[in-house]
Amino acid sequence: xxxxxxxxxxxxxxxxxxxxxxxxxxxxxxxxxxxxxxxxxxxxxxxxxxxxxxxxxxxxxxxxxxxxxxxxxxxxxxxxxx
Length: 82
What we know:
The chain is mainly alpha-helical. It has a domain at 17-65. It has helices at 2-29, 42-66. The longest helix has 28 residues, at 2-29.
């Protein structure tokens, strides 16, 4: 079952990235993103930028889960001399 999940996730990711790339490329070619971004690589750059943002977000979310905590010292009660 996990193979099917992995294949579905990979296929979905490729489809979404293709739609985003094509959409950004169409906007850039139409000049709606400015003259500077009229370039064939604009769609790819947008997809890679989104991917980097998601990766950094994942690292930020995982950070607190993998933080090493020092073991606290257990203090035992030492009887005082009578």
